[in-house]
């Protein structure tokens, strides 16, 4: 079954949990940099302290 162009162009987001508190956005980006559709990464942080909440998201241009 072929994937329609609208589905193939849909961005995808991957939850990454149980991160060490010292992991940086750059390190997370490096860990997923082999994927050609990598768009961005974000580690979620406490808005008051700026400390890592030990999870983040890796965003891709497509689910493939």
Task: Please give a structural write-up.
It is a single chain. This protein has 64 residues and is an alpha+beta fold. It has one domain (10-60): Alpha-Beta Plaits. It contains two helices and three strands. The chain has helices at 5-8, 25-31; strands at residues 12-17, 38-45, 52-60. Strands 1-3-2 form a three-stranded antiparallel β-sheet, with helices on one face. A hairpin with a 6-residue loop joins strand 2 (38-45) and strand 3. It is elongated. Keywords: mRNA processing, RNA-binding.
Point out poorly predicted stretches. Answer: none
The helix content is 10-25%
What composes the largest sheet?
3 strands, antiparallel
What is the typical, i.e. mean, pLDDT?
91
- Give, in order, the helices and strands: HEHEE
- Beta-strand level of the residues, as a percent range? 35-45%
* CATH architectural grouping: 2-Layer Sandwich
Q: In which order are the strands of the major sheet placed?
A: 1-3-2
Rounded to an integer, what's the Rg over CA atoms?
Answer: 14 Å
CATH homologous superfamily?
RRM (RNA recognition motif) domain
Shape: elongated
The CATH class turns out to be Alpha Beta
Count of distinct structural domains: 1
GO molecular function: mRNA binding
Domain RRM: 12-64
Organism: Trifolium medium
InterPro entries: Nucleotide-bd_a/b_plait_sf, RBD_domain_sf, RBM42_RBP45_47-like, RRM_dom
